[in-house]
User: Which sequence fits this backbone?
């Protein structure tokens, strides 16, 4: 497997984004986030997303020149219109503003409407937690998953993020409402591998671990079956309600690519003002040690807490280079030329 250094990958992506029309500041920030995402072991929303992002910029589905605007302020809460600008820069602005509000009031909430794909949602949980903050964030998406009992897509997989800071590393959960994201299906297919657990249905309605038939049928499996289906519906409703933005049904009507017109929520809490910094740090450590001390089940090598594997993967890839799919890397190099 080819490995690329962090700096080389970031510089290459940055050049591709500059070529696509982003200004220097936007290109540098987006390139760093894409590279960090691949470095953490999630290429589906890092390097592998660059070509699609460039395509959306060229089509005008993402507006490189958009300036997000605060349209309502309610003490600890603000509503912003992302003007369909780059999802990463909009989301960074939103979580940073929510953090500012949390430092002032103990908690802050920014609801962002009319934005575009934020790439890896966990980025914003990590960003808050590394500043000593706790966070809850989520986004809605275009329909890409059937409701439980349905065959055609009616729900977004609506990624959901929670983060709690800690000395040994933050607890960070980043999950879609589908058992696997489409990015994970793509990565698994490119490797010629099978999913470890059934991820959806083929065209004939059979549960399968083969990612290709699931991609073709778009019948991905909701996490927890009917529970994930219900949670996806309510996350969609709450994101649209709080932001005054579009729900999945309305995003589908736009028909301009992944998450164009999405609604997103960024809630940030300052533990120092609520329970005390020492309490927060001790809480995370207690949970981490307790989980790590689990009796290991058959077929597993250990038990980890959310965020632990990403932290270890990041450190390893920083040292030995980030693994890439050769075809994807060649495509991004071409965009940068």
Assistant:
């Amino acid at each position: 497997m080819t490995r690329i250094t962090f700096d080389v990958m970031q510089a290459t992506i940055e050049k591709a984004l500059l070529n696509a029309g982003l200004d220097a500041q936007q290109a540098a920030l987006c390139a760093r986030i894409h590279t960090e995402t691949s470095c953490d072991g999630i290429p589906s929303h890092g390097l592998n997303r660059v070509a699609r992002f460039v395509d959306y910029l060229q089509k005008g589905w993402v507006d490189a020149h958009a300036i997000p605007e605060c349209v309502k302020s309610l003490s600890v809460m603000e509503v912003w219109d992302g003007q369909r600008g780059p999802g990463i820069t909009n989301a960074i602005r939103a979580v940073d503003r929510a953090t500012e509000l949390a430092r002032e009031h103990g908690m802050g909430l920014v609801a962002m409407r009319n934005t575009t794909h934020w790439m890896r949602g966990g980025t914003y949980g990590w960003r808050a937690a590394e500043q000593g903050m706790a966070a809850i964030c989520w986004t809605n998406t275009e329909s890409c998953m059937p409701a439980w009992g349905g065959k055609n897509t009616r729900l977004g997989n609506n990624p959901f993020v929670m983060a709690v800071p800690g000395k040994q590393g933050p607890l960070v959960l980043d999950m879609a409402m589908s058992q696997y994201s489409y990015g994970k299906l793509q990565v698994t297919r490119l490797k010629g591998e099978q999913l470890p657990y059934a991820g959806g249905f083929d065209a004939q309605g059979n549960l399968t671990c083969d990612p290709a038939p699931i991609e073709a049928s778009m019948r991905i499996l909701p996490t927890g079956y009917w529970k994930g289906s219900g949670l996806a519906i309510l996350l969609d409703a709450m994101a649209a309600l709080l932001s005054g933005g579009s729900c999945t049904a309305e995003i589908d009507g736009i028909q301009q690519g992944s998450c164009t017109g999405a609604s997103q929520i960024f809630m940030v809490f300052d533990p120092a003002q609520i329970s005390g910094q020492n309490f927060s740090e001790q809480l995370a450590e207690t949970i981490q040690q307790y989980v790590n001390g689990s009796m290991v089940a058959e077929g597993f090598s250990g038990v980890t807490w959310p965020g632990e594997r990403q932290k270890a993967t990041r450190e390893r890839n920083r040292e030995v280079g980030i693994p890439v799919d050769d075809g994807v890397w060649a495509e991004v190099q071409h965009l940068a030329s």
Remarks:
- The mean pLDDT is 96.
- The domain at 72-271 is CATH 3.30.1370.60 (Ribosomal Protein S8; Chain: A, domain 1).
